[in-house]
Each structure stands twice: as C-alpha cells, then as structure tokens.
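Revision sheet: structure tokens.
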Amino acid sequence: MENRNPYAAPKAPVVSADEPTRLPTDPENFEYGGFWRRVGAAILDGLIMIPMGMLLFFLMYQTSRAYLYWALPSVLVSLFYYVYLVQRFGGTPGKRIIGMRITMTDGSPVTTKAAVMRYAPLFVLQLLSLLSAILAAREPVEGYESLGFLEKMQALQQGAPGWNVAITALTYIWWLGTIITLLANSRKRAAHDFIAGTVVLRTD
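Predicted:
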C-alpha cells in the first residue's frame, strides 16, 4: 500500500507548454467567445498579417505583375495561418492571444477536416479574387514604372475580368452572413462554424 503524507502539498500533473488549455467537456458549462472578442481577435490577426500586405505593396510599386509573384506566398501563408495553426493550436494567434480556442461542438480538439472546412468558403473567394488580379496583370502595362502609386493600382485593375465584380459582391455577402449568424444564436457560432461543426470557446 502506498504511503501518502496528508500534509504534503498537492501535486499537479505536468502539462507540456504547447498543450492546449483543457476546457470543460460538458456543453452546459461552455463559455462562448462573444462578438466583440472575436472582432478583436480578427483585428489582431490582421495586424499580424501586415507583412504580407507590405510585400504586396512593395511588389506593386516595382512591377505590374505583382499579383503573379505574390500569389503563391499568399496562398501558402493563408493556409498555414488559418488551417494549420487552427488545427494544431486550436485557433489563430489572434484568437489564442485574446483567450479563445476553436473546438468541435462537443469541446473536443478541432479536426483537420473541420479546420479546412472552416476556412474553405473564404479561401475560395480569396483565391478567385487573386486569380482575377493575376489575369488583369497578364500583359505588362506600358510605362508602369513612371506612374504614381495610385495610378499603378488603377492600371492593375483595368484588365480584371467582368466576373470579379460578382466575386467582390459575394465576399461582402459572406462577411455580412458571418456577422448575422454570429449575432443570431446563443452559442455565438458564425457561418463557418456551422459549416465545420465548430464553436469558439473562451479559455480565460
């Protein structure tokens, strides 16, 4: 029989530094990430991703084929940020810093399939928008180097295919739908949460 000292300090199990915060497994005890908290996380993610935007602006200043050179790095970084990090750590850096974690509806860790499905609608829209920008820049713009920055941006948009207008409209509709669904249910699930079968829980 093991001898135990009743006066000894309790010992907590050792937890790896990168192990996700353990959350309640009973849905009745879940505390969901609210609207403004999720907005704050999105803003923070946007700030973290600023270097990618700066890279695009730099390329746009240098060449009319900026989107062509920016396309692959943009896609890879987006998939890493919004799919891999979500699956590996339960959220983007913005969500984790602000004290939230993405899980399945029963509180279990988010699956790879769910992480992909969660990002898929916006990723497809962004990919189509990027394709439109690449098609617009398929022919070099004469005298591009001598144009001002705003003129360069306008020149890059002139050759965009007509369906780009529809993609832009669908993107706005998607964001509007995301906001409406997030506000319209008690579990604070956005449209992509319903698609992926996920919820966003507070960890603080």
